[in-house]
UniProtKB/TrEMBL annotation:
The keyword Lyase applies. It comes from the Bacteria. The keyword Lyase applies. PANTHER family: 2-DEHYDRO-3-DEOXY-6-PHOSPHOGALACTONATE ALDOLASE-RELATED, 2-KETO-3-DEOXY-6-PHOSPHOGLUCONATE ALDOLASE. This is 2-dehydro-3-deoxy-phosphogluconate aldolase. Its EC number is 4.1.2.14. SUPFAM superfamilies: Aldolase. Coiled coil: none annotated. Belongs to the KHG/KDPG aldolase family. Pathway: Carbohydrate acid metabolism; 2-dehydro-3-deoxy-D-gluconate degradation; D-glyceraldehyde 3-phosphate and pyruvate from 2-dehydro-3-deoxy-D-gluconate: step 2/2. One of its GO terms (molecular function) is 2-dehydro-3-deoxy-phosphogluconate aldolase activity. It catalyses: 2-dehydro-3-deoxy-6-phospho-D-gluconate = D-glyceraldehyde 3-phosphate + pyruvate. It is an enzyme of class 4 (lyase).
Amino acid sequence: MPITPHEASRATREIAALAPIIPVIVVKDASHARPMAEALVAGGLPALEVTLRTPAALDAIRAMADVPGGVVGAGTLVTAQDVRNAVAAGAKFGVSPGVTDELLAACEEEGLPLLAGAATATEAMRMLARGYDFLKFFPAEASGGAPALKAIGAPLPQIAFCPTGGVTPANAGEYLALSNVLCAGGSWVAPQQMVDEGRWDEIELLAREASKLERVRK
């Protein structure tokens, strides 16, 4: 069922409210997907972004879609075909590094709530004009980090963000303290070596620590 930009932003805002961190996941082996998702959800991070950067990504989304308590999304959406593939695999939301009219149209047509990337005030304003008021700030650290996002928020308080790209346990608190940040995206909660070795208990612990990060508005 098609979705409007306002409905899309409302849906992604609801997903952002689930936890302070959305794990950004790269899956190389689809057999790891379900136990990884179970560990992350058990640790208190139910919203999961699987990046479409590997051949196993769509199979991983299919496996994670059935995990109780989880909400799986597809990241690195670039084309309309990416959107269709993600929806067919069971993705409940999408995330993109940037945005094009083609990508927006595909997400709206397929009914996939999109967290679209923006790195400048101009990009954010263009998305706001279309009806999107919750965006991904990417690449966060390379674009100036928390100070830059705070500066963008001053003249555009009606737009909220999910910073992603270079967010770590050391700086996540700086982002989460901003009044225009609802959550942040991070890959540290599922390190590749831990995933490769099936160290799900340790991943659950990392998720539990991340889930306790405070969103203190300034």
